[in-house]
Amino acid sequence: QRSHAAMSSPGVRVAADKIKVLCLHGFTQNADIFRKRTGSIRKPLKSRVDFVFIDGPHSAAGAFPDSDRAAADADEDGDAIDSVGPRAWWLVGENIAAAASAAAAAALLERVTLDGAAVAAPAPAAVTSLPTVTTDGEAPSEASPAPAPTWVRPALSREMRGWEETAALITEVVASEGPFDGVLAFSQGASTSALALALIPQLA
């Protein structure tokens, strides 16, 4: 760590160097929103602290389902997202896998011709078989369709996707803007800061 103050003679303190703090926004926020949110903190410290705000490497657009449409167009606290769009330090692996499965299922149900016209996939060939009955002589009910994949709220996810890109970004920022004396972070950014301090030696 850098020394931020020195004594030139007994009782006389020389001007200290400004410290530098890396700032990591929350999930679905971005650097500009976090900068605005921290204005009341930064203003009294502007002569002593340089705050460096960066955007997460991943787009968080579509991170919420249609039932949470308001959240999809705003950050965690409901503030409208600016032109940069909602960003994230990592994405929910369970939801990415569910989206991939849904896309694969849709591809099986529909083909697209060369001219772009949608054509329904051919129905499976009919199979001749004897009717099935239960032991009490009643016809069994039709099988229920497979349940739709369950959407996982980001805060409850147990599968993180995209950490490699985040680690590379932070390493690059430390090399170009550092060294940093501390990290100011919120929500997913706070989790990111803990991981970064543990896994990126250049930041610690």
TrEMBL record:
Top-level taxon: Eukaryota
GO CC annotation terms, alphabetical: cytoplasm; nucleus
Entry-linked Pfam families: FSH1
Keyword Kinase: no
UniProt KW keywords: Hydrolase
Domain Serine hydrolase residues, every copy: 17-105, 119-202
Molecular-function GO terms, alphabetical: hydrolase activity
SUPFAM superfamilies according to UniProt: alpha/beta-Hydrolases
Protein name from the UniProt record: Serine hydrolase domain-containing protein
Annotated source species: Mantoniella antarctica
Phylogenetic lineage: Eukaryota, Viridiplantae, Chlorophyta, Mamiellophyceae, Mamiellales
